[in-house]
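P.,

For your records, the input lines for the assembly:
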Amino acid sequence: MSLGYVLRRLFSAVPLLLGISVILFSIIHLAPGGPLDMYTENPAVSKEALAQIAAAYGLDQPVPVQYVLWLKSMLVGDWGYSIRTGRPVLTEIVLRLGPTLELGGLALLISLAIAVPLGIISAARRGSKLDSSLTLASFAGISIPVFWLALLLQLLFSVQLGWLPSAGYKSIGGGDFMDRLSHIVMPAAVLSLATVASWSRFIRSGMIDVLNQDYIRTAYAKGRSERGVVILHALRNAMIPAVTVIAVDFATVISGAVITETVFAWPGIGRLFMESMDGRDYPMLMGLMMMGSLGIIMANIIADLAYAALDPRIRYG
Amino acid sequence: MAALAPPLLEIRDLVTEFRTESGIVRAVKGVDLTVEAGQTVAVVGESGSGKSVTSLSVMRLIPPAIGGIASGQVLFRGRDRQVRDLALEPEHAMRKVRGNEIAMIFQEPMTSLNPTQKVGHQIAEVALLHQGLTRAQAWKRAVEMLALVEIPEPARRADIYPHQMSGGMRQRVMIAMALACNPALLIADEPTTALDVTVQLQILELMRRLQREIGMGILFITHNLGVVAEIADTVAVMYGGRIVERATVEDLFDRPSHPYTRGLLASMPTVDRAARAAGTVARLKAIPGSVVDPRNPPSGCDFNPRCAWAIDACRAAVPPMFDVGNGHGARCIRWSELDG
Ligand SMILES: Nc1ncnc2c1ncn2[C@@H]1O[C@H](COP(=O)(O)OP(=O)(O)O)[C@@H](O)[C@H]1O
Ligand SMILES: [Mg+2]
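Structure tokens returned:
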């Protein structure tokens, strides 16, 4: 495992990103409407002014030409300007990245902290009442729609009980740790639900697989207790297949963030995506989606690194 | 004095059962077996005859959720010279016995080691668990053990992972792990079955040497009578969950007194050079029929459906163990007629 390997992996992602960008660009322009729709019915904006704006953003060009223009500037590090706000795309994204990383990071920690013990207990007591209840609960967790759960929680904890703020990043004038914590718990819980459910299933099946291996019997024959066997011998081996799933689920977390951030008015890139979608803000959407694709590719590289760290039989040259 | 000491291990009328969806499966049906300190007892029989279940019962390694000892005693004389019935010991007490006073090695060296831990770590673990050593001392012990099992460059080998070793090397690691706490009893469940013939002989040679040096008793499980001749003092032939014949090695090869044992001997590859040269080695007479299905055992003698000597009386009752002389026992009502 070397830095060279990581660089090579990143480099090999370039053609992938190019392909993705072509597809994304086409899909965005296939969607009906355009960024200037909000002005077309406005009597204060003349036809000439509209044409001028369109020309300024290159929107009067055919789509392939627009793509080439976008790609050319992208290659020199220019992500373009948001049509909605007029500010540089990269600046907007960076501004909104912080809250999303906070939310996603917390959701990830919650997911691991709950899914790993649940998966282990389910596997160690497979077939028990506890195991079947957890199985049922995780199916429920996977099937509950994110927005529905979000609304339900808001109704309970904000409207009925009044314990937590229903939305937002922090209170106006507030912003100390407790204030921010009270704002983040609900969206983080909602965002982690689906991953807790699916990861605990994966850790359970990985664990059951490992617990049937010969080396587990060897560990018992050494005089280890069940707890010692599970934690010292089974867990690491069971996490190896789970790592891949966790990385693949990164895409699920990203799409979950779009809904969660919108429902909870969380000022992150998920909500920025929804806003840009509404305004058909092409440069912004392209920037966000390229960022998302890069994130998923990075998650896969990190998964490979984690894989090699967990399994000494794997060596990447 | 020595003659008065109780045996190291004395299994009495052991019955082990599994709970399965199709009902209770009795895999071991009343086994008696004695291992004296420093002695090697081989248990031999076709696969499915209950050898592994017997050894796992002694170690109490069958998960309670699927089965366990139903009756009988497993009397073990510990380091404190006290005899305890392991069948009745609580789990926490068994944890102090396993890997410490009784150690076990398994058939599959390729899968019996944890693939994500260094071999030195896996050996040191036993010493850490039972001997209260520090990590550094336990690692040192692991390297010593690797040297003891004749692994070259033990300090370097301790620091690698199982997948970087051959099968024979891994079985040496298993032996090192098993002997790290100087157990009084070593249970070896087909330790050479998965290995090449030359490696098999090396491992057997190693076990013989270690037994001379350390003096542990060995319960050696195998389906190969050739291996029995190499290593054992006494033999118990197992079939359908019962011991059907027991004798010293010489006596068993000299006058096999159960048709099953005779069948096993006939299916043994001849080591005779003349036979090998004549090309007759390959033609082995496998015993016709298949082993007992414990869910559906025959009435009477377990072997009667496959036995050329079987008569009606064989189907009527399970034969007792007959003394055929010299402490040699056979569970066959026609033992005296077999040569006739
Ligand atoms: N986990 C289990 N569940 C049910 N039956 C089992 C189980 N393990 C072993 N048995 C039964 O015990 C019999 C003896 O198995 P075993 O001791 O492994 O034979 P071997 O002599 O080859 O070591 C098998 O034929 C099988 O029917
Ligand atoms: Mg076996």
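Two observations worth noting. The mean pLDDT of chain B is 91. Chain B touches chain A at residues 59, 61, 65, 95-100, 103-104, 106, 108, 111-117, 125-126, 129-130, 161, 163, 174, 177 (CB under 8 Å).

Regards
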